[in-house]
Amino acid sequence: MFQNKMMNTMFVIILTMTLVGVVVWMLLHHFSTSEAGAEPTIDEIIENSWQTEEITTNLADNHYLRAQFQIHADSKKAREELEKRDFQVNNIIIHQLANMSSSDIDSEEGIQELETTVRSQINETMQTGDVIRVYTTKRIIQ
């Protein structure tokens, strides 16, 4: 390579130090950034959320429900798409509620099941982003 043995040694040392520096920088950069699976902050949740209007609909057992939902999307663009698809979101919610009785929605498990089902059905219609969670913010059964 080089004719001088000392130049060869210096070249190897400089190359080794450069490689070690790059590895250290990559490790520090990787661990210092926030993790991909980290929980969003409350400000991010609010920024990426959209609230439905109050929905009043009949249930399967001749009762009716007045409810409102906060839908948390994974990005601002997804939230904007939700706002445009408000009629589809309301339709999905009304169809789900039409198949449920007041006793289905009267329990914590029933509400969680409704929220999960609504989330997955909305995600099927979304083209930009996904819904992370649906929150029931108002619920009155009569």
From TrEMBL:
<comment type="function">
    <text>Controls the rotational direction of flagella during chemotaxis.</text>
</comment>
<keyword id="KW-0812">Transmembrane</keyword>
<dbReference type="GO" id="GO:0071978">
    <property type="term" value="P:bacterial-type flagellum-dependent swarming motility"/>
</dbReference>
<dbReference type="InterPro" id="IPR005503">
    <property type="entry name" value="FliL"/>
</dbReference>
<dbReference type="GO" id="GO:0005886">
    <property type="term" value="C:plasma membrane"/>
</dbReference>
<feature type="transmembrane region" description="Helical">
    <location>
        <begin position="6"/>
        <end position="28"/>
    </location>
</feature>
<keyword id="KW-0145">Chemotaxis</keyword>
<keyword id="KW-0282">Flagellum</keyword>
<keyword id="KW-0283">Flagellar rotation</keyword>
<protein>
    <recommendedName>
        <fullName>Flagellar protein FliL</fullName>
    </recommendedName>
</protein>
<keyword id="KW-1133">Transmembrane helix</keyword>
<dbReference type="Pfam" id="PF03748">
    <property type="entry name" value="FliL"/>
</dbReference>
<keyword id="KW-1003">Cell membrane</keyword>
<comment type="similarity">
    <text>Belongs to the FliL family.</text>
</comment>
<dbReference type="GO" id="GO:0006935">
    <property type="term" value="P:chemotaxis"/>
</dbReference>
<dbReference type="GO" id="GO:0009425">
    <property type="term" value="C:bacterial-type flagellum basal body"/>
</dbReference>
<keyword id="KW-0966">Cell projection</keyword>
<keyword id="KW-0969">Cilium</keyword>
<keyword id="KW-0472">Membrane</keyword>
